[in-house]
Amino acid sequence: MAAYDAIIVGARCAGASLGMLLARRGRRVLVLDRARFPSDTISTHFLWPRTTAALARWGLLDALAATGCPPIETVTMHAGPVSLRGRPEAVDGTSVMYCPRRTVLDKLLVDAARAAGAEVREATLVREVIRDGDRVVGVRAVGAAGETIDVRASLVVGADGLNSSVAGMVGAAMARSHPSLTCGFYAYWSGVPVDGVEFFLREARDILVFPTHDGLTCLWVGRANGDWSAYRADVEATYLAGLDPSLLARVQRGRRETSFKGTHRLPNFYRDCAGPGWALVGDAAYHRDPLTGMGIGDAFLGAELLADAVHDGLAADLDSALAGYQEALREKTGAVFEYTLMSAALKDPQPQAALYRAIAAQPDMTQRLMNVLGGTASFRSLFNPRVIGALLRQPP
Ligand SMILES: Cc1cc2nc3c(=O)[nH]c(=O)nc-3n(C[C@H](O)[C@H](O)[C@H](O)COP(=O)(O)OP(=O)(O)OC[C@H]3O[C@@H](n4cnc5c(N)ncnc54)[C@H](O)[C@@H]3O)c2cc1C
Q1: Closest to 346 (Cα-Cα) out of 247, 260, 242
Q2: Distance of CA 161 from the midpoint of ligand 1 (Å)
Q3: What atom in ligand 1 is closest to the CA of residue 10?
Q4: pLDDT, tens digit, for every residue of 238-293?
Q5: 20 CA from centroid of ligand 1 (Å)
Q6: At what angle do helices 295-315 and 15-24 cross, to 10 degrees?
């Protein structure tokens, strides 16, 4: 018998959550990460109600609130000529939104996985998968002291992010891919007054403003992906030039407390995420531009779907259960993927501007948009040709 039911490579939103969920069901789980926690990563970190509701289901939301993260109650989207403001309805009784630092959130998840009984080894780099024929049966890793570790399991899961090395080792094919559309930088500011969470969708730029721990504001300024070289050549000037004048005035009253972090590697893709003895979850399985703030919630969703599939599959037919997981993940995230592609096409905001203007003209549609983003209404209930066609036919 293999030493573990599952070895999970990566211990952040997808991996630690999956480890926790499987361990809570009595499964023997080993979670490996090359990082030591608390550890930061390149990511802003806004959580819609769809995401905080998962933390509430898992009994972790109170612990997050106790870290002093300010609750967020309103969402304002400045899109084209209009501003839509509201609050998504509660998902399973949870309507609060947060924007927790990843040093805090990821550590909370790692601790929860350990508390559930998962073995978590930090500072451990997975270098290879071990195979028996065409089946993956374990991993070879290098531990904190430089020692080689060979471990075996019924399943190896790559929860190792966008550039998943597990995906490379198992040869997971790209099922769908669309190049990076945006790029950007973010930094943390003190003394910047905020009004809940604010999104700005502007021609060739997007701006995200989030209140976070320690009274700081996380401020992302995105540009079209092709602008990366020019942006990188003068980050501060390009970043500040991207702000709307009223936001720039607020920012100039505050102080930048951190250096800028940025990226232009924001591809949109689905990888094949299940095969003999292996699976992928989180960004390793499916990645979309971050401007819609769905990545952490989708990682949590993937962890829940995969935990169900693995738990059931280990008792019956693991390969069929994993195939079902892949299908369910694509089915549940497909509309988010399409919406994200539409929003990230910053170069061509005209159709969006008309749509948002029509939504803003109807309070029930504004609330529906909030609920779609928050997680109580499906993307297809708003972003489908019939509803969009009717909205665009409304007199201005
Ligand atoms: C700029 C930016 C802004 C974002 N903003 C938001 C937002 O506001 N809201 C939101 O919901 N999402 C946001 N996201 C998306 C979010 O960050 C990701 O979707 C989320 O981090 C995915 O989690 P994950 O666990 O799948 O992968 P990751 O967080 O990437 O974790 C992967 C882990 O695997 C480990 N690892 C990798 N390879 C190995 C190996 N070989 N051996 C051992 N360990 C390994 C890494 O050390 C890492 O800890 C943003 C992303 C970016 C880039």
Answers
A1: 242
A2: 5
A3: 34
A4: 999 999 999 999 999 999 999 999 999 999 999 999 999 999 999 999 999 999 99
A5: 17
A6: 40
Nearest Cα to Cα of residue 342 among 371, 389, 296, 384: 384
What residues contact 45, with CB distance under 8 A and at least 6 apart?
99, 100, 101, 102, 105, 210, 212, 218, 296
Quote the ligand 1 centre to 240 CA distance (angstroms).
26
Instruction: Spell out the domain ranges in the chain.
Output: 4-45+101-178+266-342, 182-263, 349-393
Hey, which residues does 139 pair with through a beta bridge? Answer: 129, 151
* Separation of CA 358 and ligand 1 centre (Å): 35
d(CA 383, CA 257): 39
Q: What integer best gives the mean pLDDT of the chain?
A: 95
**Cα–Cα nearest to 213, from 190, 232, 229, 230:** 190
Atom in ligand 1 nearest the alpha carbon of residue 124 = 43
* 79 Cβ contact partners less than 8 Å away, ≥ 6 residues apart: 199, 200, 201, 352, 353, 356
The yes-or-no verdict on residue 113 having pLDDT over 60 is: yes
Q: Could you read off the pLDDT of 70-110 as tens digits, one per residue?
A: 999 999 999 878 999 999 999 999 999 999 999 999 999 99
- Give the ligand 1 atom nearest the CA of 125: 42
182-263: CATH topology is: D-Amino Acid Oxidase; Chain A, domain 2 (3.30.9)
Query: What is the architecture, at CATH level 2, of domain 4-45+101-178+266-342?
Result: 3-Layer(bba) Sandwich (3.50)
pTM (2 d.p.): 0.97
CB 5 within 8 A of CB 22: yes
Atom of ligand 1 lying closest to residue 106 CA? 29
Which helix or strand (DSSP H or E) is residue 265 part of?
none
The answer to whether the beta carbons of residues 224 and 346 sit under 8 Å apart is yes
Cα-to-centroid distance, 106 and ligand 1 (Å) = 10
Report the pocket of ligand 1 as residue ranges, CB < 6 Å.
Answer: 9-15, 32-35, 41-46, 125-126, 159-161, 165, 263, 282-284, 290, 293-297, 299
Contact 281, 261 (CB under 8 A): no
Is the separation of the CB atoms in 171 and 27 below 8 Å?
no
